[in-house]
């Protein structure tokens, strides 16, 4: 299931407890393509989300959608039983139930090129008493042995704006008429961003 | 986009609450859940501040009372279903929105004059 993150707020439980929730506008998604074990190596469905005008779709994509209405986003999801799914079928929030645990993926907020303190939580160096490093990396390795820097060494660079998945989030409430899903806690990404919801297969 | 947010937030609001003014003496009847039992505890004191406005589901208010020489302040979520009722006992005449100055005062200095007329 695909959704747009709308924002965060809080709601009251029946017993008066306040719980923080993220509001998502979810679905409906339409099946565009079926991928099967024999042909493609895995049972997956490709679904489209958010209809767009036909003139905004280029010709190769038009061919891909065939008679389906073109959509802005296409994503693939694993399904348990591919035989129940038909191309052109549409799914909405009814796929989920209240109280269910889900996994939510999204693109995290981009932080740009950041230093190691922000990106990896390094301690940095002392601020005064003759120190001149402050927020620097510090040493990045040993001397003659191994006389190189290990691969994967945590350094400065692009932070955020990459795919992040949060597991074990609970659906608090579903407003099926408005296609809204309320999820307890935070969800990756900025408001208005695209996120995908998965049933929590563990 | 904003409307969906408002929809969720508005559904949380209560419309059965009285008009609360800072400086009023109020009694809040609050449901307390102890194990399986539920009882109502009332908390009486001066309304010290309101936070976030009346039409916001995150709104809270603070009530201050002095018991046995100790000042006690309690923050309630305004729209919480645990609030059984709020009674306004007295409306005070105050000239600030937040009565933090009461914290430094004791006894007679901490009194608030009652407001005699309603200004709309």
Strand order of the largest sheet of chain B: 4-3-2-1-5
Stretches of chain A where pLDDT falls below 50 for ≥5 residues?
none
Please state roughly what percent of the residues of chain B sit in beta strands, choosing from under 5%, 5-15%, 15-25%, 25-35%, 35-45% or over 45%.
35-45%
The rounded distance between the terminal residues' Cα atoms of chain B is: 36 Å
Give the strand tally of chain B.
5
Cα distance, first to last residue of chain A? 18 Å
Rg of chain A, please? Answer: 22 Å
Structural class of chain B: mainly beta
Largest sheet of chain B: 5 strands, antiparallel
| N-to-C order of helices and strands of chain B | HEEEEE
Strand content of chain A: 35-45%
Residue-averaged pLDDT of chain B = 85
Q: Please give the count of helices of chain A.
A: 3
Name some characteristics of this structure.
heterodimer, A: 202 residues, mainly beta, Double Stranded RNA Binding Domain, six-stranded antiparallel barrel, 41% strand, extended, B: 120 residues, five-stranded antiparallel sheet, 5 strands
Description:
The complex is a heterodimer of chains A (202) and B (120). Chain A is mostly beta strands. Chain A folds into 2 domains: 1-27 and 92-117 and 155-202, Translation factors (Elongation Factor Tu (Ef-tu), domain 3), CATH 2.40.30; 28-91, Double Stranded RNA Binding Domain (2-Layer Sandwich), CATH 3.30.160.810. Chain A contains 3 helices and 12 strands; from the N terminus they run βββαβαββββαββββ. Chain A has helices at 37-40, 59-65, 116-120; strands at 2-12, 18-26, 29-35, 44-51, 71-78, 90-91, 101-107, 112-114, 157-159, 163-175, 180-184, 194-199. The radius of gyration of chain A is 22 Å and the shape is extended. Chain B has 1 helix and 5 strands. Chain B has one helix spanning 2-10, and strands at 25-34, 37-51, 60-67, 70-77, 83-90. In chain B, strand 3 (60-67) and strand 4 (70-77) form a beta hairpin. Chain B is globular, with a radius of gyration of 16 Å. The model of chain B has no long low-confidence stretch (mean pLDDT 85). The chains are: A mainly beta (202), B mainly beta (120). At the A-B interface, strand 1 and strand 2 of A face helix 1 of B.
